[in-house]
Write a structure and sequence with these properties.
Elements: H1 2-37, E1 41-43, E2 48-49, E3 53-54, E4 62-69, E5 75-82, E6 89-91, E7 95-98, E8 103-110, E9 117-126, E10 133-142, E11 147-155, H2 157-160, E12 177-180, E13 185-187, E14 190-192, E15 197-199, H3 222-233, E16 238-246, H4 260-263, E17 270-272, E18 275-277, H5 284-294, H6 301-314, E19 318-325, H7 338-352, E20 362-365, E21 402-405, H8 426-445
Parallel strand pairs: 2-10, 3-10, 11-16, 11-19, 12-16, 19-20, 20-21
Antiparallel strand pairs: 1-4, 4-8, 5-7, 5-9, 6-8, 9-10, 12-15, 13-14, 17-18
Length: 449
């Protein structure tokens, strides 16, 4: 009996020992697998909505995604986009090499140039032997925000329009290029009312006869091709407008807020109410310009500018810059320099239209011949004393946001008694206007050729 019990106990022990050995072997093998071959990764990103932008957007938004290898085996994570709008998004990489217990990042972005609508895609991260992870991205493009950007133009004859209007100057003008009419009259073949907007078909400033006293065709202003250049260089959501005040022979002091009327007091030269006029100023041509604008109901040339700018602002237009062409008649005063008068006018305009000092660019065109004292025809009227109209922009010592564009290569007017060393022809006016536009695109929108 005892022998039988002993044999049964021994058999039980042997069986259980075998089971323990089998289990022990199995457990040892599992630990080895965990130690040498665990693969897994985590991601931080959940579904992501990019900030909505309007259709004129130029910047791209990105989301950074971290992938962590929390296993003990190196792995390669593949990254892919899928879905109907997968082509509307981009990845900075299609794979990540991840050492054990390390993390790396990738970015997903929407692309440029998408039209109004909602775009969705799925980002999937996968690795051999691991469960794939994914999240959704979306981006909404809103309808383009309509913007109206206003530019002020003023000056004398080369701003008013000394060039003949060619057929090409009236062709292919965008509906996004507008002029705010300052004085009622007939402009070319169109009757325009005071204070109303029109498609900017030249002439923009000269009304009535487009032939001057020499029998030359006139009417083309730098403003024309300035605006065309601006339209070409800006998004379709932006309309470009101009409020232009100019007349032949106007000295810069004609545009002053204070003492504008005093400058046009009877007689020429001399001291009037504390201002010292240059001998021979104001001229009869200047007086005709003064009469044109005051006869239209403005108290001064300055008032013609500011009144119309305020009108435009009340209609949602945003003032972005100023273009000036003046210098041939100089300053008109003997007690102030040209650049001092310009600063005064510029500062007064900005204050009266509610803008911060020096907040918008004023771009000055050189007189005919390059505006250099040593090569000019003498028709800079003293405006270029101290090389203030040199393209090195030394004018910024006085007006920090003033810029000078070159007139080199801008050809002269031809015909009866021409060239006169003062006035640009149509080709020169076009080139000058394009240079105004290129500089303004650079300063306001950051665009460069």
């Amino acid at each position: 009996m005892k022998k039988i019990q002993f044999l049964q106990a021994a058999k039980f022990f042997a069986i259980n020992l075998s089971l323990l050995l089998i289990i022990g072997t199995a457990l040892t093998g599992c630990q080895e697998t965990n130690k040498n071959g665990v693969k897994n990764f985590l991601i931080t990103q959940t579904d992501y909505d990019f900030p909505a932008l309007n259709e004129a957007y130029t910047r791209v938004s990105s989301a950074k995604v971290k992938v962590t290898n929390d296993g003990n085996t190196a792995l390669t994570a593949a990254i892919a986009l899928s879905g109907t709008n997968s082509g509307s998004f981009s990845l900075n990489t299609n794979s990540l090499e991840l050492p054990a217990n390390k993390d790396k990042t990738f970015t997903v972005s929407h692309i440029k140039g998408l039209k109004t609508g909602e775009y969705k895609a799925t980002v999937t991260i996968s690795a051999e032997g691991c469960e794939s992870k994914s999240f959704n991205v979306s981006f909404t493009v809103e309808p383009p925000k309509v913007e109206k950007h206003l530019y002020i133009a003023f000056g004398q004859s080369n701003m008013q329009g000394p060039g003949a209007i060619r057929p090409s100057d009236k062709e292919n003008i965008s509906d996004r290029w507008k002029t705010l009419n300052i004085v009622a009259g007939t402009y070319g073949s169109e009757t325009r009312a005071k204070g109303q907007w029109y498609k900017a078909v030249p002439p923009l400033i000269i009304s009535g006869s487009l032939t001057n006293y020499l029998g030359l065709s006139i009417g083309l202003s730098p403003s024309d091709h300035f605006g065309r250049t601006m339209v070409t260089g800006t998004p379709d959501s932006i309309t470009i407008g101009v409020a232009a005040v100019a007349n032949g022979d106007l000295a810069l002091s004609s545009f002053r807020k204070t003492h504008g009327a005093t400058y046009f007091s009877p007689g020429q030269g001399g001291t009037v109410d504390g201002i010292i006029r240059t001998n021979g100023r104001p001229s009869d041509t200047e007086r005709s310009g003064w009469t044109r604008y005051t006869g239209a109901g403005y108290t001064s040339l300055y008032d013609a500018i500011v009144t119309n700018v305020k009108l435009a602002q009340s209609q949602g237009w945003e003032v972005k810059g100023i273009i000036l062409h003046q210098g041939e008649s100089g300053r008109g005063l003997e007690d102030k320099t040209w650049v001092e008068i310009l600063k005064e006018i510029y500062d007064d305009i900005l204050a009266d239209i509610g803008l911060e000092p020096d907040s918008i660019p004023i771009i000055c065109g050189q007189p005919f011949g390059g505006g250099k004292v040593d090569t000019s025809t003498g028709n800079d009227g003293g405006a270029n004393v101290g090389n203030q109209l040199h393209i090195d922009n030394r004018i910024q010592t006085t007006i920090p946001n003033a810029w000078v564009i070159s007139s080199d290569g801008c050809g002269a007017r031809t015909g009866n008694q021409q060239p006169d060393g003062t006035h640009f022809g149509s080709e020169g006016i076009q080139l000058l206007g394009e240079r105004y536009g290129e500089k303004m695109l650079e300063q306001v929108y950051g665009y460069t050729n």
